[in-house]
Amino acid sequence: MPELPEVESVRRGLEAQVVGKTIQEVQVYWDNIIESPKPVSQFKRRLLGQTIHQVKRRGKLLLFYLDQDVLISHLRMEGKYGLLDQDAPLTKHSHVIFNFRDGTQLRYEDVRKFGRMSLVEKGKEAQHKSLAQLGPEPTFEDLTLEWMLTFLAHKTRAIKSILLDQKLLVGVGNIYADEILFQARIQPDRPGGSLTNEEVEALRQAAIKILQEATLRGGSTVRSYKNSLGQAGTYQDFHQVYGKEGDPCPRCHQPIKKIKLNGRGTHFCPHCQQ
DNA sequence: AACCTGACCTGTAAGC
DNA sequence: TGCTTACAGGTCAGGT
């Protein structure tokens, strides 16, 4: 579910909630969520006694920095964290529980069970396969026009699909891909390599601006997203095309169209995105 | 290498 | 009211 703005909002909540807490016990109710180490008993044992010192983010990944290890966590479509007292009743979607020495617990809940966690030795997290291939963060310093032009050269696949893989830049998912392409006035099915330099620069500006603005608003809540404090985002109130099929385009008033592109619902204005 | 299609899961809403 | 189908903020293994 969450894209960069939502994950960053979760990160900020978690930073305020769990930094300084020491893990006393771990429970796992759905083994497939734990990627490594295997078996899950190892994952649990290694966490015992470690204190959370920092919560960072890279793309859509959350990174919990502990004494010896880094817990890498991806929420995928429906993952959520929450801090509760240890006597609060579990729900049917509570899959991983971190009990702390102070009597509270961090809970990972995930209706679809798509989320994944890995525990890696501190210092080796950048080499982990979930991190090693990631593109730059969407900032003016990291995401340069030169990089984007090089990356996109000769690419034949649709620009929307390129935005969704995390190599050109990190953090974009299905909502923000549509919003960014609308802002940049680029049709989602244009081959990546066919964009002009001006269009690539427009894409760069749109990506940085929209992801920053959405982060400022705590992300978008379309169905179920909440941060670790239980708060919804408000950026959905500013969506121009996502979820707006049939509505008039905010620029030209022609109806917004929804198509399926590479298996993903895709919203755009056929009139002003060429 | 580059690209596309299922598979992973469950819940909700729409269609009949 | 039921039953069936499509769809959902993501990624990856496997195939062409």
UniProtKB/TrEMBL annotation:
Chemical reaction(s) catalysed: 2'-deoxyribonucleotide-(2'-deoxyribose 5'-phosphate)-2'-deoxyribonucleotide-DNA = a 3'-end 2'-deoxyribonucleotide-(2,3-dehydro-2,3-deoxyribose 5'-phosphate)-DNA + a 5'-end 5'-phospho-2'-deoxyribonucleoside-DNA + H(+); Hydrolysis of DNA containing ring-opened 7-methylguanine residues, releasing 2,6-diamino-4-hydroxy-5-(N-methyl)formamidopyrimidine
One example GO MF annotation: damaged DNA binding
Cofactor requirement: Zn(2+)
PROSITE patterns: FPG_CAT, ZF_FPG_1, ZF_FPG_2
Catalytic residue positions: 2-3, 60, 264
One Pfam assignment: H2TH
CDD domains: EcFpg-like_N
Cofactor binding, per record: Binds 1 zinc ion per subunit.
Keyword Zinc: yes
InterPro entries to which the protein is assigned, alphabetical: DNA_glyclase_Znf_dom_DNA_BS, FPG_cat, FPG_Glyclase, FPG_N, H2TH_FPG, Ribosomal_uS13-like_H2TH, Znf_DNA_glyclase/AP_lyase, Znf_FPG/IleRS
Occurrences of domain Formamidopyrimidine-DNA glycosylase catalytic (ranges): 2-115
Binding site for DNA: 93, 112, 155
Record-annotated FPG-type domain positions: 240-274
Record bears the keyword Signal: no
Key words, A-Z: DNA damage, DNA repair, DNA-binding, Glycosidase, Hydrolase, Lyase, Metal-binding, Multifunctional enzyme, Zinc, Zinc-finger
Subunit structure as annotated in this protein's UniProt entry: Monomer.
Family from the record: Belongs to the FPG family.
Name listed for the protein in its UniProt record: Formamidopyrimidine-DNA glycosylase
Organism of origin: Alloiococcus otitis ATCC 51267
